[in-house]
Amino acid sequence: MTSMLARLRERSHSLTFRIGALMALALLPIGLISVNQTYLLLKETDKNSSANLMARTAEAAGREAKHIQAAFGAARMLASAAPLLRNEGAGCEASLARFLEREQPYAFVGYVSANGIVQCASDGVGMDVSSRPSVLDMVNNPRERAMVIPDAAISRRAVVAVGVPVITDGVYNGFVTVSMEHGALAQTMAPIPTGQGGRAINLITFNSSGELLTAAEEGTYLEEQLPSNADLANLARIGRTAFIGENALGERRFFAVVPIEAGVVYALGSWDYRADSLVADGLHAAYSLLFPAAMWLAGLAVAFFSVQAMVIKPTRNLRARMLMFMRSRSIIPRKDSPWEPQELIDMDETWQMLAESVLRDEAELHNSLHQKTVLLKEVHHRVKNNLQLIASIINMKMRKMNDPAERRVLQELQHRVASIARVHQKLYETSAEERVRADELFTAIVEQTAATGIQEGTRVDVTQSYDEVILYPDQAVPMGLAMSELVMNAFKHIGAPEGETPSVTIKLYLEGSSSAVLDIANSVGPDAADRRSDGLGEKLVRAFTQQVGGTVNEMNDGRQHRTVISFPIAAFQDAA
């Protein structure tokens, strides 16, 4: 998780990410406005679809509504004439029978007294129906109603009966009922119209108690088309309305309720709810909802590929060429791209001019440094030649001396001059300008001193060990002279017990990272005299050591004499 957050934080600093984020923020308000407009359009579509369904429901239920309304009209008329029906006697049945012949699809019309006796009817006069549920409902709650009677008492058929109570001076005196054959009434429904997009309309009628009366399609399928989240009795109390709900299958549908006889009978129409269809113009709402998201994603894609093609790729190419220039000092030509903006082209050309300027400056600097190095080597070479000339003059003078003491003094002087010449020789021979390898310098000094300081026929074991130490000329000259004096004194005062070989040991080793130690030891014989600390050689060694900021320590344990010089190594700084 931490590594993922770290990678995300690292990528958030990239130009592509930041421009993409800015584009997303810039397009977000437009997308929100588009989504809101689409939402409002869908709401308006639902509203129009509901109104359309309501109109088509009323149209489909029109013929049945006329029959039901006519039945209620007839029942109300007969209820108002109930006293006459009670007094008409046998003629009442004939009158109502003629009424049925004129009005279709009525199956029965009659007046039932308060005690449940059929007093005047198209058939079944005198029948006691007081125990029928529909009669008991009217007695207990006298109001206009419509209901389905599966097995009518007189016709023995399924009928839809409407009932109107007879109220005289506030007293219930029975009711008038008009019934219609259930199947015949259902067939009066107009052919079911088809909604836009080929959506089929399902139609049913129900009473104020929520009981189904008729349906365009009978059977289980009808129950599955009823709203599962709304009670039909409650819809009857609401009256004319339209809403979106789910059926028993969990499918979303449009539902519309239209009153056929207000407060008594209602028609319920429904068709499937298609969220991806717009009634207004047939466009797909899903496309409308996806449009702002697609526009947003397209904007991000355009921003991403534009930045990649016009900024990121040319910038990476420029960085790669810069790295190649840094590593190999080679300038790779720029690759032309039609997507690269002029600003980056100008930047690339500016960098190329800068790189070419750097190469010219470096070439001039290298040439100047080379000339300086050649001149400096020539100076060292001439100094070495002059010193060797001085040494040769001293040698010529020494040959003319007859006094051994004088010859020894001139020989020591010649040796010191030769040591200085050797340092300058190393300075112009070395490949690193102004730097001298101490091991090479000290090895040459020991070899030359051994050639002149060891008497012919004398065997001496010389052991040398040097770490890699690099010195400036300001250190190399005094340390070379000190080394020459110490080695010359070592060969001068060398000795050994009887039966042993005289030895000289020379070591140069690093002590830490900023100092070095020169350790020179020679074996001594049993009769060796103490070295005087006030001799010229000793004074020169101390003087040379002080020049480099070092210290000198001498030790003698009777078997060997040791001189240890500790000195700091000057840090090298490359020329800017």
Automatic annotation (TrEMBL):
GO MF terms, alphabetically ordered: ATP binding; protein histidine kinase activity
Catalytic activity: ATP + protein L-histidine = ADP + protein N-phospho-L-histidine
Keyword Zinc: no
Pfam families (UniProt xref): HisKA_2
EC primary class: transferase
Nucleotide-binding recorded as keyword: yes
EC number: 2.7.13.3
Keyword annotations of the record: ATP-binding, Kinase, Membrane, Nucleotide-binding, Phosphoprotein, Transferase, Transmembrane, Transmembrane helix
Annotated SUPFAM superfamilies: ATPase domain of HSP90 chaperone/DNA topoisomerase II/histidine kinase
Entries under InterPro entries matching the protein: HATPase_C_sf, Sig_transdc_His_kin_sub2_dim/P
Domain Signal transduction histidine kinase subgroup 2 dimerisation and phosphoacceptor: 378-448
Residue intervals passing through the bilayer: 20-42, 254-273, 293-312
Protein name from the UniProt record: histidine kinase
